[in-house]
Amino acid sequence: ETAVFQTPNYHVTQVGNEVSFNCKQTLGHDTMYWYKQDSKKLLKIMFSYNNKQLIVNETVPRRFSPQSSDKAHLNLRIKSVEPEDSAVYLCASSHGTLANSDYTFGSGTRLLVI
Amino acid sequence: GQQVQQSPTSLVLQEGENAELQCNFSTSLNSMQWFYQRPGGSLISVFYNPSGTKQSGRLTSTTVIKERRSSLHISSSQITDSGTYLCAMEPGNMGYKLTFGTGTSLLVDP
To answer: What DSSP assignment string belongs to A70-96?
Structure first.
């Protein structure tokens, strides 16, 4: 099956803990993304990687760090989570920039910080 | 301010009615795309439509890049069309990211 796979689906943790989310795509794409969807459903780009290289790094707190071992994997680590980090984190992939309609999202990781 | 404005914010239809969703962009863009999201679900691409009109079944998208707007028309709505419709643009000054609108929440009642 070709798709974007995210783990875990849900994660509950306490303030100050460290969490890691995994994302893998089997579509043969060369660009991967992390988006954050807040409680109002607004999606915002966090990071973009093209062939393991960081291309886009929006205004994201330093406790967030993406990690890419190859173009099929893009993980996200959050050191010392805070309550405002509670959200759904969506991974996506595509061929290069948005030159066609192959933009594909994973099912998301829902994080709750208590 | 918000670069991508969607209207209406929410919409309730009776099954069989038509819907018109609007998306307006405040900055230049290379292309735009419509996505569909069920509650708790992933985003699914509905249309990649950088310009002109595209149709797929009961859905029609029209984008006028020069006027920085796009619309999504749903004809003969069905209960399964319920969910959130999001439009997104690729900014003209930089690729490798999408800027999303806040979405239109659609509920189709039987």
So the answer is: ETTEEEEEESS--GGG-EEEEEEEEST
